[in-house]
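Dissemination and training. As part of the outreach component of the grant, students in the summer workshop were shown how a complex can be specified as a set of sequence lines and then modelled as a single object. The example used during the hands-on session is reproduced here so that future cohorts can follow it. Participants entered these lines:
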Amino acid sequence: MPTRPDETDPSVPPEAGAPTGAPAALEAREVVKSFGGVHALRGADLLVRPGEVHALMGENGAGKSTLIKLLTGVYRPDDGVIALHGTERAFRTPLEAQAAGISTIYQEVNLVPMMSVARNLFLGREPRRRGLVDVRAMNRMSGEILERYGVRVDVTAPVHTLGLGARQMVALARAVRLDAKVVIMDEPTSSLEPREVQTLFGVIRTLREQGASVVFVSHRLDELYEICDRVTVLRDGRTVHTGAMAELPRTELVALMLGRALLAAHDGRVTAFAPDKAQRQAAPDDEALGELLPAARRKWGRGKDRDRQAGGPGGPGGPGGPALSISGLTDRHRLRGVSLDVEPGEVVGLGGLLGAGRSETAQAVIGARPATGAVKVGGKEIRRRSPQAAVRAGIAMLAEDRKADGVIPGLSVRENIVLAALPRLSRAGIVSTARQDRIVEFFMTRLRIKASSPAQLVQDLSGGNQQKVLLARWMCLNPRVLLLDEPTRGIDVGAKAEVQTIIDQLAAEGIGVLLISSELDELIEGSDRVVVLHTGSVAARLDGDEVTAPNLMRALAGEGSDSGAEAGLEAGLEAGLEAGLEFLEPPQTAEEGAS
Amino acid sequence: MTAAVLEPVDGAGTRDRVLDLAQRYGVYAALVVLIAVATAMNSDFMSVSNWRVQLFQVAPTVLVALGMALVIGTEGVDLSVGATIALAASIIPLYIGYGPAPAIVLALLLGAAAGLVGGAMVAFAGVQPIVATLSLMIGLRGLAELMNGAAAKPVEDPSILDLGEHGIAGVPVMAWIALAATGAVAYTVRRTTFGRQLVAIGDNKRASLLAGLPVRRVLVTVYVLSGILAALAGVLIVGHGAEADPANQGLNMELSAITAVVVGGTPLSGGRVRVLGTVAGAMFMQLASAVLIQHNVPTSTTQIVEAVLICLAVYVSRERGTR
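and obtained this result:
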């Protein structure tokens, strides 16, 4: 690699080596780190001022995690200086960094699943009375602490009974000591719902007011622009930009990270979805897939063929009616009569706040969650719902929790891709390696899965590549319906755009897609229609031109509560909207299932 | 996570890699070293008669350990295999009157039935494998003694005795059977849908379920296979000893089998089945104790050495990293 600075760099970080007034809360100067010949950092700078929220951006592999680990004493730099409040420091262990006032929250939640919430919060620093753990005090204090984070849970319940978001909050509460000078958050929001994100931001603002500095890593641009004061962008182990967050346009930020003007073609849009739904393109090598999976293709018929037969006896979508039809889905806690249809070749967005029942709907459809109500695929009802029956009927679900519900970590990319399709690739129970390898190669090329070989273990891949492996797993079943639960959560910008493009392609091939996303941009730009859930039932249905940020906001707001305004901060909205919210009548429409 | 690919090169990574290599190939290296040392110390060790004895001893363990490896691959354990051996043994003298083939088939069917019960408890009732098979372990041995009576019964059928005593090309029939079973199980794990699903379920059961895998069917099948393999071992043991002795046959076999699997490098956390490693593990434990006994080391010391070997194997194969 040449050491010549990249031509697209707008500026060399002005702050580096030239502190302005007060010493930086935390500073890294020209830090270098390599792992056996591989350079992770080639001279990165970071300057965090006291009392600011500082965004640290970069694609996967840019060196963000390495830099964070240098700052927190997990690694030591090969070269360069790390300074805390103007004093040069060399942390040898994470404990030393913590003692110096640097708290860290990692993307992966590290809690003891079988221990109670309170126990986890106070792990290693339990309040004691006469030498024994003072359980009562511990539980009371835990309740108080979590209250600040907007989490109301039974603190004596084991952590594994909590939802992902609540677990993240517990981890956060444990990591952030109130006397922390610098808090480093590595993708803290990747498993949070919009409302929880707002609670987190509340905590961050409190920290800022107390004069603490926060280093914030996230892939969600909306969040960065909302909470961060300044930003540092890393690329290929170097700092390529430092400046005020508000002065850096989104497209430029993304271009800085990717090193190319990726989003220029999207014309102000922030996702890679096709601007015009009618012009979704099928993947160019779609025919090749047809040859690879002839049996499956014959079974469902091609999407275009179905379109040609539109208006047939089955209904608007072609023979057999909608790809997926849900009616009156109800369970004991979360779902109260959810009904919706997905036509072939259509992307239906499923929106809603935390607890609205989006993931639960998807899980109930594939039978992973007990519920009453009817699920029809192509007009044919699935009688005894189970994931197996769902796969047989042509429904596939990309689960929200990639690690727990998606990948088989110890198996290779190859085996993860063909996992669900094994019976179709086998004769008399014996897997045809030739067919398997052809399919794996096809999908690794088509989805641009970056792995050293098909034999690489999935656990060693980046989040974005893991997600593509899971998409490939479902695509090689050639499903009729795809349920995508937060398909772009926690993956880098490049992979995100690729996944969005793939969703468009799948729709173009005639698959009915139900897209669950907490990102309004994704729902608005990716969906033909959006169905909004509120506390377990359908609150609104937005069609075509109605799918706009203000409309979606109103629907999410449900019965006019404040929570809608919180969630709305996700999107870049017109300023007047918040005021307008007060005058809205409850948009709760009549129960569709009842009619 | 972004630096995950780079991490193995770091300090702690080197140690992990050494341990990983030890887990994967350690048992073969240990086996070679053991044979070399034993031969150097005692020239009789490489004699045909010694190897015949060792193969007779190890063949039933290999059969049972193969089934155990499959069960452990699903993050389970089958403690009932020793009792299944006794059950299979006890049926032989009762039905040998109908001829050897029906008696053997019946014994294998009983083994399958025992596995079916254990597997159903695990897969459908959600009982922990250790509890389900522990109850079977107790119950089945009681059943075997009930059918056979507490005292040993002689078996004189020549076909069954041939299975336990004779050789083909100088190698015991038992060893040939174990070899064939090894090949079959290895093929099953690597090339069949069932084998691949088994490993996936052991690694991440929930994800496998959501991927539409027939989780329950696979789990039940695994325990049935383990039961059949244990019953087959029981038949061979009866042939070798020329008697059915349900009070003593197959005693502690579940532990020997687990040891062989663990020493062979299969992690108890599931998601991986090392078939050849399991066979090598069984061989290694057999030869190690034989060498110690041949050198007049007291049984008590032999047991302590075995314990150390097991600890060592578990240390190398324990779960590592951030999985």
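Residues 60-251+269-274 of chain B form one domain. Students were then asked to discuss how this feature might be tested experimentally.
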